[in-house]
Amino acid sequence: MLSFSKEWDTRPVRYGANQGPRDHLVGEVVPGFPGSWYGGTVREVRRIIFVSGKVIESALDQRWMTQRRTGRRSWEWKTTEALVPGDRVPLSLAAAYFGAEGQSREGYFVGAMLGDGGMTSCTPEFHGDPLDGAVQFMREFAAENECGVREIPQGTIVRLRFPFRLGHRNPLTDRLRHFSVWGQRCDEKQLPDQRLSHDFWVGCLSGLIDTDGCVRLRVNPKGTLHGSIEFATVSPVLARQVSDALMRFGIVNRLRVDKRLKKRGHTVNGYVVVSRRPIYIVEVSRAIALVRLAGMLDLRIGYKASRLKELVSAVGHVSPASSEMHGYDKAVALDRVKDVSSTGARPVYGVTVSPSGLFLVDGLVLGAG
After folding, report:
1. Exposure pattern of 61-95 as b/e (b: 16+ CB <10 Å)?
2. Fewer CB atoms near the end CB (10 Å): N or C, the chain?
3. Pairwise CA distance, residues 134 & 118, whole Å
4. Cα 144 from chain centroid?
5. For residue 56, how many other CB atoms are within 10 A of its CB?
6. Whether the model pTM is above 0.85
7. What was the pLDDT predicted at 302?
8. CA separation for the pair 354, 5 (Å, rounded)
9. Which residues pair with 367 in a beta bridge?
């Protein structure tokens, strides 16, 4: 289990002289073993949905570390039963673990194929603008792997096919098989479940944003420029994995769903649309997170890269809030409870862990109990 190396300062809030400074440090994320494991009893369970899109189910007496909403915004304990929409729960930004396998270019290839690639026929395919950097990268990557490229114009885009060589295995298909993404349907796409390198994941996220992502610039009624970086997919698993991958880099984001309710009589190119899959959108909109993500991505599509630079220049001056009243270690951010609902009774289990009494579940910080 992942825990923290020190106890957090959860002293009751008292006002007046001689109270002493409050410790805002949270320590480091460290591996730990459960001190005890108990339970299996049937208890009432609540389902907690967070603004980030994370969902956790827990018993009524599960303890949560939350931030006070008024006054000195210090940590305080709450049980699941006492949680209400608006409560803020810490989210670890320091739980990243990377392996050694995979290079940045391999990551970009996998990410781009998960975005605009076809991996369910005999031959891998990629669709894109023949003049942009993503298509040029695919040409170069195919050449590096001694694979042929066949380009089929289709209006303003081109379909790249990477055909078999007679008597040989397709090298690009082998790369996709190696990272366990070959053969995935669009609604079942997911990232590799392997211990891959930091550079691989940077390349992979860049490929995903270049294909199925967008960089938005907006101006509010006051004339202030702001924006977001978004990734959209019809695969719920892939969306959750991209959200988690961003969190591993310390980039706060939220996951939302566009259910795309069908309009009566809706047609596309003369064909009646019978059903439409919901779209899962991973969005990064906070200024600090945008700047951090922009400094990491290596986008190859020109207009996205230039728009990203413009966005960073507009929000790069924003710094995180920190004062005696609020502001903690940069190793944590705050997620917010969006909804709490009952899911009935079921067997539940408890755990204790040392040294801090805290452990991570899906990146969120929970108290033992």
Report:
1. ebbbbbbeeeeebbbeebbbeebeeebbbbbbbbe
2. N
3. 15
4. 31
5. 17
6. no
7. 92
8. 8
9. 358
